[in-house]
Write a structure and sequence with these properties.
binds heme C; mainly alpha; two-stranded antiparallel ribbon; 22 helices; Flavocytochrome C3, Chain A, domain 2
């Protein structure tokens, strides 16, 4: 055979060259393959053994972690992107009061009536907290309107400060006290133990909340931890007692009624409504609690399964840290569902649109009920004539807020969300029935709604001087906030702004 080959090559040398080049190509490919194996090994080794920096204690500066974990860091940085809008949500800024002015009336007397924007990426947590009219303009002449507790869900500097000062000493201060300390946006130290990179809980309020609810969080499975890290912030909470300590109202359970029972028992209210005088509750964002009652959680999914799916890069699998709406990369649903992207998107939109139908009705009727109550008071209605109505208004609005403030609720738990909205509408209309009787007794037969068809009109109606508030805030954002950032940079607490 070899003599035959040698003879053929002698006759046609091209065959010899052909064999030579084919061999070279094979050797080259083998070389590439070997190199890629060593490279992958090296990458894995870098990740788990050769960390570039040793992270000690609570390191709030995300850039330091980024040196050890560039993939997670680079995707995390993309939470700053503003490039996607789904039908109802997305990562772009949206002025929710502009789109739904009736909410201004629902929150009359509470800071949310000044300013409320749809959430965007984690990277903006600090910037948006500085910018919102809800934090006011604290400086040497103007007192704070918010407690230190406001930092809880915005920054890994918060657990660092609690560790340094102790819980009581942290919470008994006002918001601006930590202006130059709380500067890094939501990041690595919020969710990870630097030694093992295991998921960890840094907000003790969640641990206590679980204890009250009867769950031992130390026994949580790794899959449960993939939701619990989010439950540090995406939950319902209130600020308890004179020191304003963030507390989860889970003592009787995590449904909307069980939390209400707890609030009623301790006679808690967030504010007195300035139009109706009802003692109101403000729901925060019970994403976690509602999610638990939905079909995906009941099949064992966690938040990270949809909001932080795995990515692959050169054979390395890692979690996408660009936490945003899953509709931006809807292929994440196709890991489990054999459905087209269009169908999957439409399932989400159907749930959301149906919840929105009821939501629109509630906001319209509930705003009207508050204003009817205002009219009744003006006509001389007595406390005992109004008592039942005020309770109904509190119940109606708590349910409405609970269902809509959890921005993903109508998809995460569609049936539970509709159930809650249905009860809200029921309580709203019962309040109106009671109010009709009172108004009739005082001779009001021609109740008319004021014009609250835009944010500006609604804010004027409830008596907000938006021009002054906005001017003061713009000035504050240009003068005070930059000083905080500058000081943080000088003291080495902040490496980069974004
Ligand atoms: C909101 C919580 C959260 C934040 C903030 C966060 N992570 Fe993660 N991280 C997770 C979750 C959830 C996982 C998946 C863990 C699992 O499946 O066990 C993860 C996984 C990881 C892993 C393991 C490998 C992987 O990708 O699955 C590394 C390394 C990591 N994160 C680094 C970082 C770094 C660096 C930062 C800051 C830039 C960061 N994380 C910020 C929640 C977070
Ligand atoms: C330390 C508190 C904190 C933790 C932990 C946290 N979040 Fe957030 N999240 C926020 C805040 C605050 C915002 C709003 C930021 C803004 O608008 O400036 C937000 C915004 C979001 C948004 C809207 C962003 C967009 O682009 O649509 C999603 C989705 C989200 N979070 C999901 C999660 C998930 C999933 C987890 C767990 C893996 C998680 N969050 C963990 C506080 C937190
Ligand atoms: C089965 C997939 C899935 C799981 C699991 C999941 N979500 Fe979502 N989430 C969605 C979808 C879909 C939306 C709607 C996005 C849209 O309309 O653009 C959403 C919306 C959100 C939003 C509002 C986003 C925005 O842009 O305003 C937040 C916040 C959120 N989810 C947090 C969570 C948290 C916290 C958990 C766990 C407790 C969780 N999600 C679990 C699929 C999921
Ligand atoms: C990790 C797997 C997984 C992922 C990822 C996932 N799902 Fe599911 N989904 C399930 C399971 C399991 C069920 C329950 C199926 C059943 O019982 O037939 C379910 C049920 C559903 C249902 C029916 C809900 C009901 O009311 O019963 C819809 C709609 C749905 N998913 C849409 C989505 C969308 C949209 C996404 C992406 C944003 C998504 N899923 C991501 C596993 C997943």
């Amino acid at each position: 055979m070899f003599t035959k080959l040698a003879e053929s090559i002698k006759k046609r040398p091209i065959i010899g060259w052909g064999i030579f080049f084919a061999t070279m190509v094979v050797v080259f490919l083998l070389g590439l393959f070997a190199a890629s194996i060593t490279e992958r090994r090296a990458e894995i080794a870098t990740l788990f053994h050769n960390k570039k920096v040793d992270i000690e204690g609570i390191e709030a500066r995300n850039e330091i972690w980024g040196e050890n974990y560039p993939r997670q860091f680079n995707t995390w940085k993309k939470t700053a992107d503003m490039d996607f809008r789904s039908k109802h949500l997305g990562n772009m800024p949206e002025d929710a009061l502009e789109s739904r002015p009736e909410m201004v009336v629902l929150w009359a007397g509470y800071a949310f009536s000044r300013d409320y924007r749809a959430p965007r990426g984690h990277m903006y947590a600090i910037e948006d907290l500085h910018a919102t009219l809800r934090t006011g303009t604290p400086d040497t002449d103007t007192p704070d309107m918010q407690p230190a507790a406001c930092w809880m869900c915005k920054t890994p500097d918060m657990p660092r400060l609690v560790h340094e000062h102790g819980i009581e000493n942290f919470y008994n201060k006002m918001w601006s006290h930590y202006g130059s300390e709380a500067v890094n946006p939501i990041g690595c130290a919020d969710c990870h133990d630097p030694k093992t990179m295991n998921l960890t809980i840094t907000r003790t309020a969640l641990i206590e909340g679980c204890t009250h609810w009867g769950k031992d969080i130390t026994k949580a499975t790794p899959q449960e931890m993939r939701s619990l890290v989010c439950a540090q912030c995406h939950v319902e909470y209130y600020f308890h007692g004179p020191d304003k300590v963030p507390t989860f109202p889970w003592h009787k359970g995590i449904t909307v009624e069980e939390m209400e029972q707890y609030y009623d028992k301790i006679e808690y209210y967030d504010w007195i409504h300035t139009l109706s005088k009802a003692p109101m509750l403000k729901a925060q964002h019970p994403d976690y609690e509602l999610f638990l009652l939905g079909p995906h959680a009941q099949r064992g999914l966690s938040c990270a399964d949809c909001h932080m799916p795995y990515l692959a890069e050169g054979g390395i699998k890692y979690s996408n840290h660009q936490v945003t709406t899953p509709l931006k990369n809807i292929s994440v649903c196709q890991t489990c569902h054999r459905d087209s992207e269009e169908n999957l998107r439409n399932y989400v939109y159907q749930y959301q649109d149906k919840a929105l139908e009821v939501r629109n009705r509630i906001e319209h009727e509930l705003a009207k009920a508050h204003i009817m109550a205002k009219t009744a008071w003006e006509k001389g209605a007595k406390e005992q004539e109004m008592a039942a109505t005020l309770k109904l208004l509190r119940k109606a609005q708590w349910r409405w807020d609970f269902a809509v403030a959890s921005h993903g609720g109508s998809f995460h738990a569609p049936v539970e969300t509709q159930r809650i909205l249905a009860h809200s509408l029921d309580y709203t209309l019962r309040a109106q029935l009671e109010l009709q009787k009172v108004l009739f007794a005082y001779g009001v037969t021609d109740f008319k709604m004021p014009d609250i068809s835009s944010k500006a009109k609604a804010q004027e109606y409830i008596g907000l001087d938006m021009k002054t508030l906005t001017q003061k805030k713009n000035n504050w954002v240009k003068t005070v906030a930059p000083k905080w950032i500058e000081e943080a940079r000088e003291k080495g607490r902040l490496i980069s702004k974004k």
